[in-house]
DNA sequence: ATATAATGTGAACACTTGTATTATAAACCG
DNA sequence: CGGTTTATAATACAAGTGTTCACATTATAT
């Protein structure tokens, strides 16, 4: 009898693409979906065949990597948030110093989003899209983000005047404002809002929110 | 030669639905799309045939009312915003009086949204959906809303400390917060957030924003 | 009552879709 | 090397799609 390892190491096939670069097919499938969404398709409207066509493989080969489009989408969600979580980790490790903290934070955030535009484009679009499982996955990731941010805020604010619910309320407001900025940054930027203007906008909104927070008094 | 009237009065056919209520087919098509979106489909993923099936007419009959799904969607956008615009008109005519202005405003807004849930469900979903024309239509409606709100705010705030851009920034923050509330109200309300909690949340967020606004000083 | 315009039907078209089966080719391991 | 696993291809099928066309029905107005 042979020893059967519990952990199966997934060996990934290489596949040759149009541009002659070899790439993991699995990764290529992710990229294809992101690319198709970037061409103005909602995730739900992307067919399995379209994806494989984009990658350049046979439709049936798709099933070697994912049972269906839905699970691909779910993996794409956790993949996208993994990178964001890492950014926040780094920021927490090296807190922004000096004056203009808000400005600098918004700047690093925006440049980060612009470094991974497809992932955030996907998240923002799928957040309210037609596939319930993906929607809820994104939603719980965002809720996690709000929770983390509210514990961070708890250390900065007076816990006498701030209940945990109110901290979440504040964090939600901040995350919401930043989400808006990302939306304007990545979708239909036809109003010629340049990046600097958007950073300006985000900075001012955050500043106003934090100004309100500094004056906050809990009213039953 | 006959007199050709410039204004063509559209005579609408009655159509019998499952529930035996007669209804304009055109209206029935709108309703069918809203209903299908309510069953967790993004607009882009709804087929013309599905819609006609829902209404109970032949697919080809669709073309008697709309040239394609896209224009139906665009009409649905202006239809949805027409009702919202009316609410705001009424509010402006009869401003909320007395104490707790913010609370009352949020309450009337929420009850209003709950009175037309399908329309706002559609708007919120299609805002970031896959069809570019619809997306931009919704976006410009929202921008109009922000502009209107910022002129309203201009009358309440000191114009020395508030530039028009900053007024829009503030209005955008408020509209954004309310949009969030509607999203949580109409989509996947699986966290059992009841309506009162959501009104509470919205009220606090608006209060915090306005608190910040009252302290605002423009920083170049 | 009858002509006219507005709405609806039914069948057909050329495509696209997801998935299953069977076969081929490539990578891996002993 | 040879054998086994894994990835991909080829082909097929039933079901669904948008759109068109010729025709039938219904409503309205003269």
Give an overview in words.
The structure is a homodimer of 220-residue chains. Chain A is 63% helix and 3% strand. In chain A, helix 4 crosses helix 7 and helix 7 packs antiparallel against helix 8. Chain A starts with 13 loop residues before the first strand and ends in a 6-residue tail after the last helix. Chain A has two domains: 51 residues, Arc Repressor Mutant, subunit A, CATH 1.10.10; 146 residues, Orthogonal Bundle (Tetracycline Repressor, domain 2). The radius of gyration of chain A is 21 Å and the shape is elongated. Chain A has eight helices and two strands; from the N terminus they run E-E-H-H-H-H-H-H-H-H. Chain A has 220 residues and is mainly alpha-helical. At the A-B interface, helix 6, helix 7 and helix 8 of A face helix 6, helix 7 and helix 8 of B. The structure holds a DNA duplex (30 and 30 nucleotides).
Brief rundown of the structure:
2 copies of one chain form a homodimer. Chain A contains 8 helices and 2 strands.
């Amino acid at each position: 009898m042979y020893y059967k390892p519990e952990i199966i190491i997934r060996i990934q096939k290489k596949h040759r693409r149009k541009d002659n670069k070899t790439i993991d097919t699995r990764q290529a499938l992710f990229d294809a979906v992101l690319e198709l969404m970037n061409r103005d398709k909602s995730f739900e409207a992307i067919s399995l065949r379209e994806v494989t066509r984009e990658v350049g493989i046979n439709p049936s080969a798709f099933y070697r990597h994912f049972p269906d489009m839905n699970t691909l989408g779910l993996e794409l969600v956790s993949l996208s948030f993994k990178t964001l979580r890492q950014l926040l980790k780094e920021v927490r490790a090296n807190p922004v110093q000096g004056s203009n903290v808000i400005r600098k934070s918004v700047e690093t955030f925006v440049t980060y989003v612009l470094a991974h535009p497809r992932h955030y484009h996907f998240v923002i679009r799928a957040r309210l899209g037609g596939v319930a499982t993906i929607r809820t996955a994104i939603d719980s990731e965002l809720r996690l983000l709000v929770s983390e941010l509210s514990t961070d805020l708890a250390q900065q604010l007076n816990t006498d005047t701030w209940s945990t619910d109110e901290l979440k309320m504040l964090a939600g407001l901040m995350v919401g404002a930043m989400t808006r900025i990302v939306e304007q940054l990545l979708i239909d930027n036809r109003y010629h809002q340049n990046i600097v203007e958007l950073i300006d906008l985000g900075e001012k909104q955050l500043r106003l929110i934090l100004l309100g927070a500094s004056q906050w008094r809990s009213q039953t």
